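Customer escalation, tier 2.

The customer says the design service returned an amino acid string that "doesn't look like it belongs to this structure." They asked us to rerun it and document both sides in this ticket. The original structure tokens are below, unchanged.
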């Protein structure tokens, strides 16, 4: 199968690297298009994929076209791809652009809309996707194969993609904030900055792996390390007083609402 990337920025690069790492295809099966020659040169040199300036040439080359430009550049990129999109599977990762709008801009393509996240760069993305009615089971399998290369993949109904954006799309920013705050807490208690940072990162990483590996609810795992009158309950009491749980719920809700507003524009 041949793949074209419209846009060769951070997400496109992460997906391309993931596809090659997963041996989904070889570099000569991929062409990336972008107006910035410097970016393309770098991508081409480091991955061996084909690089072109024209979206039309890229789209014509492939049977699967991945739309990886910013939402404000989507209309222009699709117009530039033109007839190259005819009969192709178009996989968009542009935040907030509904399948109906994408199908309007690319009426001759079968559309899949996906929401990956930035851990794609290290092969640990969480991606959810929804399909237009015109998408076939082979299209679904092709999209799943692409996103499996950069992490885990979840099919969802399109009306859930704003919630996905609020949770896993924006979530890496929330977790970075948590890591930064834990690290600050360590420094406040006398740890050197680098050690505090490393301990915070490893704690988040290790706990996430523990939760993923266990069938238990996170509350049960939390209980296991919370001894009566101990240190952890003292810390948890402060987190509850600071409404951290509620703040995270509200953060996901606010981001999902913002995604819904952007989708409606
Ligand atoms: N980053 C995230 O966390 C994340 C998560 C999920 C989904 N997304 C979505 O992924 C998409 C890409 O995000 P990103 O972070 O990878 O952005 P990015 O690094 O800015 O990459 C976008 C690339 O598209 C290029 N471009 C602009 N107009 C173009 C056109 N007409 N044809 C072809 N290429 C064009 C840009 O080139 P110039 O720099 O020259 O303009 C840039 O290299 C966005 O729609 C975003 O909503 C991002």
């Amino acid at each position: 199968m041949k793949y074209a990337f419209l846009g060769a920025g951070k997400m496109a690069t992460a997906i391309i690297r993931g596809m090659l790492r997963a041996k989904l295809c070889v570099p000569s099966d991929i062409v990336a298009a972008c107006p910035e020659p410097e970016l393309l040169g770098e991508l081409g040199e480091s991955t061996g994929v084909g690089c072109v300036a024209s979206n039309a040439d890229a789209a014509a080359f492939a049977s699967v076209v991945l739309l990886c430009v910013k939402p404000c550049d989507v209309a222009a990129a699709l117009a530039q791809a033109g007839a190259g999109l005819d009969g192709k599977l178009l996989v968009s990762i542009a935040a907030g652009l509904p399948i109906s709008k994408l199908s309007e801009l690319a009426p001759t393509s079968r559309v899949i809309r996906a929401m990956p996240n930035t851990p794609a760069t290290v092969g640990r993305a969480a991606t959810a996707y929804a399909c237009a009615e015109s998408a076939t089971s082979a299209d679904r399998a092709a999209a799943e194969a692409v996103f499996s290369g950069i992490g885990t993949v979840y099919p969802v109904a399109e009306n859930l993609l704003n919630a996905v954006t609020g949770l896993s799309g924006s979530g890496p920013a929330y977790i970075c904030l948590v890591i930064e705050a834990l690290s600050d807490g360590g420094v406040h208690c006398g740890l050197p900055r680098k050690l505090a940072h490393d301990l915070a990162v490893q704690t988040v990483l290790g706990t996430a792996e523990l939760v993923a590996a266990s069938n238990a609810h996170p509350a049960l795992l939390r209980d296991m390390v919370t001894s009566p009158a101990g240190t952890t309950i003292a810390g948890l009491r402060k987190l509850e007083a600071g409404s951290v749980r509620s703040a995270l719920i509200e953060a996901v809700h606010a981001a999902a609402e913002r995604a819904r507003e952007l989708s409606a524009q």
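Tier 2 assessment: The sequence is consistent with the input. The chain has a mean pLDDT of 96. Residues 193-213 form the longest helix (21 residues). Sent an explanation to the customer and offered a walkthrough call.
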